[in-house]
Every structure is written in C-alpha cells, then in structure tokens.
Amino acid sequence: MINWKVILNIAKTHLLTKMKSTVTAALGVTFGIGAYITMAGFMTGLNDLLDGLTLNRTPHIRLYNEIEPSEKQPVSLYAEFENAFNVVRSVKPKQSQKKIHNALPILNYLKANDAVKGVTPQLLAQIFYISGSIELGGTLVGVDITEEARLSNINDYIVEGTPEALRNNANGILLGAGLAEKMSLSVDDRVQVSTVAGTIFPLKIVGIYQSGLAEIDNVQSYVNLKTAQRILGEPENYITDINIKLFNIDQAPAMAIGLQRQFDVKAIDINKANAQFETGSYIRNLITYAVSITLLIVAGFGIYNILNMLIYEKMKDIAILKATGFSGRDVQLIFMSQAMIIGLMGGLLGLLMGFGLSVMIDNAPFETEALPTIKTYPINYNPMYYAIGIVFALISTFIAGYLPANKAKKIDPVKIIRGT
Amino acid sequence: MKLVLETKNINKHFYKPKDFHVLKDISFGIKEGEFASIMGKSGCGKSTLLYILSTMDTDYTGDLYLNDQLITGKPHEELSRIRNKNIGFVFQFHYLLTEFSVLENVMLPAKKLAEKSQAEIEHDAHEKLKMLHIEHLTEQRASRISGGEKQRVAIARALINNPTILMGDEPTGNLDSQNSENVFNIFKRLTEEQRLSLLVVTHDEDFAKRTDRIIEMEDGRIVN
Q1: What is the CA radius of gyration of chain A?
Q2: Both A352 and A282 in a single domain?
Q3: What's the average model confidence in pLDDT over A334-355?
Q4: What is any one GO biological process for this UniProt entry (chain A) (predicted)?
Q5: In angstroms, rounded to a whole number, what is the distance separating the alpha carbons of residues B164 and A306?
Q6: Which of A28, A57, A414, B214 has a Cα-to-Cα distance from B222 of 20 to 30 A?
Q7: Pick from B155, B148, B114, B98: which is nearest to B131 by CA?
Q8: Are residues A323 and A211 in the same domain?
Q9: Rounded Cα gap, residues B97 and A230, in angstroms
Q10: What pLDDT shows up at residue B113?
C-alpha cells in the first residue's frame, strides 16, 4: 500500500527547503525544453518557407511535350533486321509540336476528376524584351491568372499591381522584377516583346512580379493565355503545359504515370521535380533533433547530479524514514516524485519559454530583397513540438531520477545509523 | 508472563574485512512491561544484536519472534510495516528530520501507518508531546530545539503508533546527566503506567542498574 499523500508531502518539503538546487535543476530542464521548442519552431518554419518558395510554385503534376528522340528507331520496325544488332548513329530528336495534342479535352477531363483540386493551362514561349536597340532574351508565360491566383500563391509574389489588373487588360503584362530593373520600367509603362519569328508586340505593364529567385525574375513575365496565343499567332487550343494541383500530394507520382500513358504526353510529378528539397528539409530536421536531444541530455545530467547530491545530504533522513517503517519503495518514490516534479515544472516553464521566444522571433523584422512577402522571421507553432517537449522532459527526468532514487531505495539504514 | 520478543539461536557473521563471528547463539526473551538493558564493552555485538531485533538487519541465522510470530525470513515490505506498527526506536543522536516541524516529525510514522485519520493522529501527537512535557515546542522546526528536547521528541515519535516494544541504542549517550535522568524517568513511567516493554543498549552503568534486568554481553555471547 502506497501512501501518496505522505510521500508527496515529504518530497515537497525536501524540494522547498532546497529551493536553490530545485530551481537550478528545474531551470536546466526549462532551458533544454525552451531551446528545443524554439529551435524546432524556427527550423521547421524556415523549412516551410524555403519549401513554399519553390514547392508552392511547382504544380503537383505538370503535363508537357518533351523534345526527345523516338525510343523506337525505324530500323527496329523493319522485319528483316529483327534478329540483327542494329547501331544507329547521330540520333536526332523526333520532329514534334510543342503544344499538347487535344489540350482542351484533357483540361475538361481533369477538371471532372475528384482527386484534382484545379487545373491550369499555360503557354510557355521564348521571346525577346526590346528596350531601345537592346534585346533581352526571356520567357513569356500565358496563364489563366484567376485560376493561378486560386491554386498557387502567385498573389504573394506580385509586388506591385494585382492579378485582377492583368485579367482586365488584354494587353497587360506582369513583368519580372529583374527585367523591370534592367530596363528601368515600372507599372503603367509600356514594353515591347518580340517573338522568335520576329513579330513585335507592345504590352502595358500592369504589375511587377518578384519570386525571390533571380534566375526567374530576370527572364520571366506573365500575360493572359489569350494574349500569349495572339502574340504567337496560334489558335485557342495552343497550350504547351497543363499544371495540375491535387488535394492529396501523395497521389502525384502514381497519377503522373497514369496520365503519361493515357494521353501520350510527358508527366512529371512534384517529387521528381524537387527531390533535393526533400533532402534539405530532412537534414535540417535531423540537425534540429540532434541539437535538442543534446540539450535535454545535458538537462538530464543536471537533474541526476542534483538528486544524487540531495540523496547524499539526506542519508540520515533516509535511514530514519526506513527505521520508522518506511519501506525502500516508499523512499524510492519520494525521490522519484521529486525528480518528476522538477521535470514537470521545468518542462512546463520550458514550453512557456519556448513559446515566448518563438513569439519574439516571429515578430523580429526580417526583410530581404529575395523574399518580398516575408517581413518577419518564420516560426512554426505546431503543437506537436510542445507535446514532444513535455514528454521528453518527463522521460529524461524519470531516467535521471530513477538511478539516484534506486540508490536511496537500497541504502542500508543500519550502516548509516551506526556510522560505518 | 507473555514474551513480547524472543530470539532462538541467533548467529551473525561479518565477512568484511575477514570472517568474524559477532553473535554466537543468542537466545533470550523480553516480557511484557519489562525494562531490560543490554550492557557490554564496545565491539561485543550489543548494537548489532539490537539492529537484528529491530528487523532492520536481516543478515543472520536463527529465529526472531515478535508477539509469538516468526519474523525471520519475511519480505522487506512486510518488515517495514512491522517496524512501523510494533517497534519504536530511539537513537543515540536524536535523528529527527530537521526540515520538518516537531509535530510533523512525531506524526510521520502514524501517517505512514494510515490507520487513523489526520485529526486523530494530530490529537495523539499532542498527547504524546504533552506526556513528555514538550508540547510548547509543537510548531518549532526540529533543527531549532536543544539536544535534550530533541531526544524527547524522538521518544514521542517512537511512541506515536503505540508499539509493542521500544528499543534504544544508547538513548542517553549524548545527553548531560540531568537530561539523562529525565529520559530514564520517562522510560520508567512508560513501563509502569502503560506496560510498555523496553530494551535499551547502554554504556551507562548507573542507568542500567536501575532497570528491571541487565543482559550482559561479552564477545558475542550473553553471559548473564
């Protein structure tokens, strides 16, 4: 029979009379957990930011026509050479069109699919921006801007102007920020673009687009899909890319394979397109956990040390308790509960500290050219980290307390009382 | 008369640093209401015997009976409970929990036993303190009172669960003669008024002579 009231009362008295040690031990846990929460929140916040930078702009599946050589060369179709070893030299890519065949029916088919959140058609065209006698090479993307704004966070990257302004102006263009700077242009100015074939077309700048990635901002601009088709002199079904957003990103690889077979186009899924980001996030998470666990282990040693010292100081008390009828188990529980109280108090304070630091970081100004929409440092407030934090605090204090408490359990009162 | 405590052929060895036969065939009994003292030179094994009798030391051969019940061989948990309920212990150096108040020190064994309510335990503790004329110290910290007072608090604590037997390991060894006299008178009164059995290890010959019975030990044997 365990008399918790008595045990907790003794534990409480020990902790209160040794306030300094108690506070030191608890602060060890507090800093460990606080640092873990802050680190985890900051690191994963940064991860999300960096992933978002690329991933949110990347469609889950992209359909397009790849320029590539035919897999089956004509010679292999010829029956007489069936069993021969054929060598074809200087293989050239197959003559094929850039546009997706039957793009509009494919769009309608995908829109009807339940797993698909949205589909946007795009027209990618190589063009030149003309500034006086200078020609700057670049790409023009014809988009359905309303759908793009709904499905991707393109809105965040339009630093001047609005998506509506583009939609309402048939000759409007969202100019890349790097291009605007190079050509000294701003909103409401005009810019001339020239197709590869040489047709010159004037456009009105309705907004500036800044993705934060210089290689994009220096070459890419957005226009309405119809405008792009008109500039190229192509009909309304001329679409070079179909971007698909799914409700569940995990379905992307399987679906990409299916679409590639079904429509005879190249389909690339987000995982293939951005494999390196997965690796980056994974390694950053690994570092976060390694540092946090180190901090918590250090805190655990602190508790172990202080409890050990406490038990040496309390040798006589332990002997008296045992002599007056407290069992080894009671004594063990007294010291275990001290460890757990330290862990719980320190842990809860640590959560508060972690949250406080997170809020501070969240409000610290962080302005950079590369990330126009970011004004403060990114923080992830995932409650999961708080749960892990408190559980870890309790587990580490349990282990740190168990060893000294077990020693206290085994102390032989006779030896202490006789002073040997 | 009924035997409260009885030993049969108790033997004990110390194995470190080398084999040493401390207790040799100890057989004796304490009657109800008897005030016995154990005397002998240092190292004759009297303290060792007392710790075996108190159930704290279990490393021996032979049989130990408390209230006609065999104690030897019982698990530690049960021994703790027996110690809690039936045996009161007074040490040479008072041994109070210094961080607790006098009242809490006295109440602790009863709280552990948990047979009575908090109010009853508190009432009992006040009774015991009153009986030992130290009720004015009730709320003091145990570290703030004098040596003689501490020893009386320790006796009150030993008595709180109304044990069958009270054991003392030189309870007056660290006290001046006036306080020793006090403690002796308390012990005497307990045996006479409450029929409590007492077994006290002592060096003090005057103290021993005034007890009902002297058990003399020499080289691990009872000689008288």
Answers
A1: 33
A2: yes
A3: 90
A4: lipoprotein localization to outer membrane
A5: 40
A6: A414
A7: B155
A8: no
A9: 94
A10: 80
**What ipTM was predicted for this assembly?**
0.84
- For A179-192, the pLDDT digits (tens) are 898 888 888 889 99
Torsion sign, CA atoms B80, B85, B90, B94: positive
Whether the predicted pLDDT of A281 surpasses 80: no
Q: Is B116 on the interface with A (CB under 8 A)?
A: no
Question: pLDDT by residue (tens digit) across A78-114?
Answer: 888 888 888 888 888 877 778 888 888 888 998 888 8
User: Which of the two residues, A19 and A352, has the higher pLDDT score?
Assistant: A352
**A371: confidence class by pLDDT, cuts 50, 70, 90:** low
Could you tell me which of A230, A218, A241, A81 has the C-alpha nearest to residue A148? A241
How many other β-carbons are positioned within 10 Å of the β-carbon of residue A169? 18
Contact B83 A317 (CB under 8 A): no
Chain B, 2 to 41: residues with Cβ < 8 Å from chain A are none
Q: How many domains does chain A have?
A: 2
Measured CA to CA, the distance from residue B10 to residue A419 in angstroms comes to 23
CA B211/CA B114 separation, integer angstroms: 34
Domain containing B207: what range?
3-222
Please give the single-letter amino acid code of residue A304.
Y
> Same domain for A39 and A11?
yes
Interface residue of B49, B54, B80 to substitute, partner A, most A CBs within 10 Å: B80
Under 8 Å between Cβ of A204 and A224: no
Tokens representing A291? 């540092």
The count of domains in chain B is 1
